[in-house]
Write a structure and sequence with these properties.
Layout lengths: L4 E6 L1 H4 L8 H16 L3 E6 L2 H8 L9 H24 L5 E6 L1 H5 L1 H16 L3 E6 L16 H11 L4 E6 L20 E2 L4 H8 L9 H13 L4 E6 L5 H6 L6 E3 L5 H10 L4 E7 L1 H8 L5 E2 L3 E5 L7 E5 L5 E6 L4 H7 L7 H5 L6 E3 L4 E3 L2
Parallel strand pairs: 1-2, 1-5, 2-4, 3-4, 5-7, 6-8, 9-12
Antiparallel strand pairs: 7-8, 9-11, 10-14, 12-13, 13-15
Helix pairs in contact: 2-4, 3-4, 7-9, 8-9
Bound molecules: glutamic acid (GLU).
Length: 371
Amino acid sequence: MAYRRVVAKFGTSLLTGGSDRLDRNIMSSLVKQVAQLHKQGLEVIIVSSGSIASGKHELGLTKKVKGVPFKQVLASVGQHRLMSLYEQLFRKHNITVAQALLAKVDLFDRAGYLNARNTLLALLELKVICIVNENDVVAVDELHEAMFGDNDNLSAMVANLVDADLLMILTDTAGLYTADINLDPDARLISEVERIDSEIERLAAGTSSKLGTGGMVTKVEAARLATASGVTVVIADGREKDVILRLAKGEALGTRFLPTTSKLESRRRWMLSGLAIKGKLVVDSGAAVALKKQKRSLLAAGIKDVDGEFQRGDIVNIYDPDECRVGCGITNYSSADIKVIKGAHSEKITTLLGYDYGSEIVHRNNLVVLE
Ligand code: GLU
């Protein structure tokens, strides 16, 4: 298998097959392929649209729906119907599903980002398939920055959040073309994009989708975001036979966007950039070895000292007793909490604080160790 962790995004026009309702056959084929990859040990997270379409069908509405408030109502009617269908389809393959509704504001909040990341990674460890959608009911319309508005950008954010290797954006077209296929008989599919430049953006702007929110513009936007986090992105036709299985094997299908940096590099850059770092933890030599050599999580017992004021979700530097920087990571506890629990056994955390966020102060998933 060419990839280890994949985010698969299914758009509305794919899930409905262009009709006014979720298409069970199409969904069943997508689910079957995801289930097969899952059985082979590949980690998959789904980002699925379709709640608004499903709500609209349930209420018997036929006209095009305008206005965000009403779409929020439809999403509320449709979301659990969408999930219920996924649940039924995955159950046939003995796979448990989970739902995560994310809003942009939550992910910009440091604790929200950390909570979402920890939850999605924990679900992967538990072999549960998580189905993500935007939390349309609360997404705020007036502030464009507070809303993804389209699941293409959401899927790029999810791919970044979980350090995916591949993002598949599956839709009802084969990918990005050199011209509008409906108008130009010479239009041909672009199979690989090394860098998204103004020409690629111009081509994307020339195409639009009837049912989904974004069309090609938001797909290319998403590709730019994800490739900058080290993720390979493919836009492909979700109706193509075995498309998910073939893409996971690395087959050239649709339009592939190459990552512009390595995953590790992008995360390291983000974490190690002095700007983001809010404080410092000094650990004992045993903990320093466990972090460096065994790639373990940092526990309270190994912490000797705390410096600076920081909150849960902030990035902190980690030093050994000789003042040598071991690396840095996202902390699950604030500086005030760590002052109380440093040196203590993990089982004591609840007694000492009255609550706990797990035994790891910095989880190994959220740690970058300097070589
Ligand atoms: N969140 C919307 C839904 O589930 C879809 C947004 C989009 O089309 O990208 O219906």
